[in-house]
Every structure is written in C-alpha cells, then in structure tokens.
Amino acid sequence: MGAIISILILLFDPFLQQVVVYPSCLVPSEKPAVIVRSERYGARSYEGLPLPSVVDLSMKAAIYNGVFAIGNDAESNIQYSCSTGNCTWPEFSSLAVCSKCENITSLVEKSCNDSGCYMLSLPNGPTLSGLGGQINASTTNISSSLNQIQASVFKFSSLISKRIKDPDDALAMECAMWYCVQTYQASVEDAMINQHILRSWRNDSATLGQSSDLIYNVSASSPNAGLNPTIFEVSHLAAAALNSFMSETFTGSGGINNTGPAFSSDVIQALYNTDNLTARIENLAISMTNNIRQQNDSVASPWHGTAWKGETYVHVRWAWLSFPVTVAVLALLFLFGSIIETAHRDILVWKSSNLALLFHGQDLELTEPPMIHVNKASRMAQMAKDVKLHLTQTLDKDWKLVQR
User: Fold this and answer.
1) How far apart are CA 350 and CA 360, in angstroms?
2) Is 323 within 8 Å of 15 (Cβ atoms)?
3) Pick from 187, 208, 215, 231: which is nearest to 91 by CA?
4) Which of 25, 107, 307, 356 has the fewest Cβ atoms surrounding its Cβ within 10 A?
5) Do 166 and 303 contact (CB within 8 A), yes or no?
6) CB 38 within 8 A of CB 302
7) Total Cβ atoms within 10 A of residue 129
8) Which are the contacts of 163, defined by CB distance < 8 A and separation ≥ 6?
9) Rounded to 5 degrees, what angle do the CA atoms 171, 175, 177 make?
C-alpha cells in the first residue's frame, strides 16, 4: 500500500498545477463606442449655404472612390469610435443608398453580316456601331422590373462589347439606385469593423419631381423595419443635384481603337474595365451611404454601443483536485493504519534514530556502563552521552566499534 501511494504522489504536482488557471474575458469598458448614422441628407457648402444645383465635394469623392476602387472595400470605410478594438452595437437604422442591377442582354438587337455584328442596340437605349471593343451608357428606362422601383438617385443602362467580331460577347446591364433605410448589425473585433445589413426599406412614393423633401417614415409603413423607428428625410434640392450629377457622370461612350483607349470619361472607362458591374455599383452605393452617414450637414445621431476590454481573472478547476485529495486521504489512512498496527504489536517508535542501529544492529559490548537491554530512544540517547567509541580493525580485517 505504501509503495502504491509513493508512486501516486509522483503525479501530485502535475494535477495541482492544473487546478488554478488565469483566463481572460471581455468585460464592458467605461470608454464609449460610437458609430455614425444619419436621419437626413441635405448637402450644404462649407460656408453653410444650400447647394441646390451642385453636389458637394465629399459626395463626389465618395462616388469616384466607389467607382474607381480596385477592391469592393467601401464597407470598411465607415467611421466609428472603438478605443478598445472590440465593440458591439445594438441594431440601428440609418438613411442609405440602395442599388440593383439586372442583366438585360436578352433584349439586345443585333445587325450582323459575314464580317460580324456591326450594330448592337437596346430598345430606346444605347447603341454600338462597329466590331466590338466599345461601351455606351445612358440614363434610359428599359427593364420593366426596375421600373417598379422609384430610382430616387438615378437609373442608367449600359451596353458593352469587348471582343471584336464576337456577337455573343455583348453585355447589357441596367442599374438603379435609390434612397432607402437600412437596419444594421455592427461590431468591431480586433480593430476590424464588421457590418451587416439586416433589413432594407424604400418608399416608392418619394419621387424626384416633388417640390418638398423626400420622407421615409419607416415606423408608419413597416413596424419591423428597425429597432429605432423614426422619420428619415432627403432634401429635394440635394436629391435633384445628386440625380443631375449622376446622370451626367454615367452617360458616355468609348472604346478601344487603333490608337488605344478612348473614353468620354474615366467613369465610363471604369465601367468598361470592370468584370462585375453589379458588385461595382453595390460598392458605389455603400460608399455613398458612408458619406451620407458622416456628413456634417446630415442630422447625425451617433449610435452608442459597448466597448469591451480584456480582463484576467482567477479560475479554480475543482475537478483537478480529486486526484490529490484522493492520494492525501489514502496517505492518511495508511498513516493511521500504521500507527494502530505498531501499537498492537508493541513496536517502539525509533523512526530514523542511529542509536537504535548501534545498540541493536552491531556486536557492541559495553563494559562501562554495563550493557543492558535498552529499547526506548530516550534511554538510548541518555546512555550514549557516557559512552565513547572508536573504530578498530579485527583479525579478520573487518572494522568494528569498540569502547575506549
């Protein structure tokens, strides 16, 4: 039993080391977490004057960034404040720009001969004449499904043919953009923003031709559109200016000829070069939404959330104590058993006394004081005070303790 306990004790320390650990967890911080949102878009100049006929420079920059960006990364450009690098926000709603594109290539009409298709056209829309390597874009209404959407920002169609003498290479797209109200779920993890659109709502009764502001009353029309229902507005002057700028910017043509690329604008060239027009327009909508949410003239209502900070605490894993406690109990039982057993056998307690070995384990002959039978350790210690011994060699070449 004692040998088994001695072996088990070797595992004592590894188990004890597993009892206490120091994990870290995220707890709310007293520092603020803020993300931008907007309830109104009404662009003004830096002098505070209305802009009835032009688009402010920050929105123009957002439009160009959305079109020219190599990657569709406008989502990560939203402004927020999260000093700890880990933040969460409840669901919130904000004024935004939504988009949708449809492939209308099936509507393309082709005029071809033995040399190839020299004329591509859309009904009431852009046309291409030549043998490919061209684009033509204009603000026309072609698709019936998109006509159901009130394109309060703008709508345009594009016809692209990149490969020469290939009539099947033609691509026709129609895209619409409109003001909407989006409900978001946002969080920051390791200083990286993650934002997801949960719901989106539009008001097709708000048109560009009206002389009053465009109103988006989400709570009255769709109670489940967001957790913070309110009235969202777009200045009719700002809406008219943006529509005029977008219609002009996305109208044009160009292509690749013998002298190289020739496009009416950089935006038209970017539309020609893109491999995914739908993703490019979605990126444009996000970039414009970010600008609306963080504009100085927008009725911004910053949305507050929770900033989380790391905190280390002491955690005791009581299950790891089961083995050490079991070994300790077994050792105590073995100790008590040994005490009881030695008591029943009248075994004296010598422990590690060296005197017991000298008095009972050696052929020691004492003449002064005379050799007597001594068993108790205290008595042996008293006798040892009066005895002087030295080592001597016997005739058998052994060593022996003898009294001086």
Assistant:
1) 12
2) yes
3) 187
4) 25
5) no
6) no
7) 11
8) 132, 133, 169
9) 165
* pLDDT tens-digit series, residues 309-318: 888 889 999 8
Q: 231-255 in b/e burial notation, b at 16+ Cβ within 10 A?
A: ebbbbbbbbbbbbebbeebbbbbbb
Give the residues across from 304 on adjacent strands. Answer: 34
CB-count exposure of residue 63 (10 Å: 0-12, 13-18, 19+): buried
Say if residues 80 and 87 touch (Cβ distance below 8 Å).
yes
Written as six digits, the tokens of 360 are: 């009972």
Kindly state the average pLDDT of the residues 61-81. Answer: 81
Amino acid at position 316, single letter? V
Round to whole Å and give the CA distance between 237 and 248: 17
Peptide bond preceding 302 in cis form (omega within 30 of 0): no
- CA dihedral of 372, 375, 376, 382, whole degrees rounded to 10: 30
Residue 26: CA count within 13 A, CB half-sphere: 11
Please, which residues bridge with residue 161 across strands? 134
Give the pair of three-digit tokens for residue 221.
């029309």
Place of tokens 């691509």: 171
| Per-residue burial over 276-306, b = 16 or more CB atoms within 10 Å of its CB, e = otherwise | ebeebbbbbbbbbbbbbbbbebbebebbebb
Contacts 24+ apart (CB under 8 A), 42-50: 42/213, 42/233, 42/234, 42/235, 42/237, 42/238, 42/297, 42/298, 43/235, 43/238, 43/241, 43/242, 43/295, 43/297, 44/296, 44/297, 50/235, 50/237
Strand-by-strand arrangement of the 40-41 sheet:
40-41, 231-234, 214-217
Indicate the pairing of strand 231-234 with strand 40-41.
parallel
Residue with tokens 């009353």: 217
Q: What tens digit of pLDDT does each residue of 178-193 get?
A: 999 999 999 999 888 8
Angstrom distance (rounded) from CA 182 to CA 96: 6
